[in-house]
Amino acid sequence: MSPLSEEQLMKRQEARRRQILEAALKVFAVRGLRGAKMSMIADEAKLSAGQLYRFFESKEELFVTLIRQVAQDTTREIAMIHDLPGSPYDKLRAFTATILEDKSTQYPFKLIQHANTDEDVPAEAKQLLHQFSVKRYIEQLLPLFEEGQRIGDFAQDDTRRLISAFLTMLSALITLNMPLDDDHPLPNADMLMRIVAGPRSR
Amino acid sequence: MSPLSEEQLMKRQEARRRQILEAALKVFAVRGLRGAKMSMIADEAKLSAGQLYRFFESKEELFVTLIRQVAQDTTREIAMIHDLPGSPYDKLRAFTATILEDKSTQYPFKLIQHANTDEDVPAEAKQLLHQFSVKRYIEQLLPLFEEGQRIGDFAQDDTRRLISAFLTMLSALITLNMPLDDDHPLPNADMLMRIVAGPRSR
DNA sequence: TTTTGAGAATGAACGGTTCATTCTTAAAAT
DNA sequence: ATTTTAAGAATGAACCGTTCATTCTCAAAA
């Protein structure tokens, strides 16, 4: 006797699942695997702690699921840089500005950062991250940077090195969670762009 | 009949104390207040856990003592930049290079970073940090940067903003503990200097 | 050279706390 | 009425700061 339509049931559950994953992303990104408590994720998702276990077997499974999702999303996110308007410099600048300003865009990067440095990260997550590592992002950005260098907008360093430095800086900035007041805001995109900007004054 | 002279005793104890503080600096800097376990500090100092309590009442006291010491040291450390040889640019570059390359120089910065962001940091530590905050470092560096801007070596942004941005970046880089391989090393001092470098190509 | 005893050191044990996870119970939905 | 969903209490294991009984060390005294 099924007192609920099969289909609607699935839909609701799927929605719940996403709701939990979304909450988990925020909490794991900010506090890391150890620092994130199931109760916090539950609070964020506006559910009770017990409920989480109807959708995920364990904290670990929740974490790994999240990593899997985020690894995919991030690659797509970065790919979108090529569709932005303007020169390579413009594209990179817009991309950077978005990340620095938009909190929700930061979560995936923070999560990856944590997953790369925290202890007790499940082997499966480690292995997923290895596939979607900095190396991959560098390759994704290579054409953009090469073009930027060709037309003299970007510095003439070794290209991969330049990308790596830029990504490291960006990542470091995002990760930093200093208490920010108005006197000392995060450096903005233009500041960061000086890392890659060519010798010509812009 | 005391089998050990008063003076020698004091010396030995003082040495032990320093030994513990040194170990604690490393461990607290890397793992933060919560993440650092007394047993880890003991291991690092090559002592048993119990011994720590002959010198410090509690984990908290040890932490606060350390913060106090580091707050003082750091101010002195930064002051030394003025004695370095060369132009403001040269000084800042040398200073930056030292910090990026020398692990032991990084510990105090990491500790402060942690103390500023971790939870459950004792009120006394918070208050100590407030006195020795970024604001103070900015004031310390102000003459250097003003001179650098005057002679056109530094960018013409608002001076305090420029210092703040630079310190934030430096701090973010230090704090980042990515697993570094040879393909993706930390950006070096020259990369970082581009943040402050003036429009003239160097 | 031996003895001695204060200070140093150890490491096991204690006790409190903190969670991940499970269980109970009951309301809501159909 | 029966099943699904939910909340929140309960459980139990792990962790870790701290203590303490015990042993060790080694410079001075004998």
From TrEMBL, chains A, B:
Q: What is this protein called?
A: TetR/AcrR family transcriptional regulator
Domain HTH tetR-type stretches: 14-74
InterPro entries per record: Homeodomain-like_sf, HTH-type_TetR-like_transc_reg, HTH_TetR, Tet_transcr_reg_TetR-rel_C_sf
- What organism is listed for this UniProt entry? Paenibacillus arenilitoris
Q: Which GO terms describe its molecular function?
A: DNA-binding transcription factor activity; transcription cis-regulatory region binding
Specify the superkingdom: Bacteria
- What keywords tag this UniProt record? DNA-binding, Transcription, Transcription regulation
Identify the DNA-binding region of this protein by residue numbers: 37-56
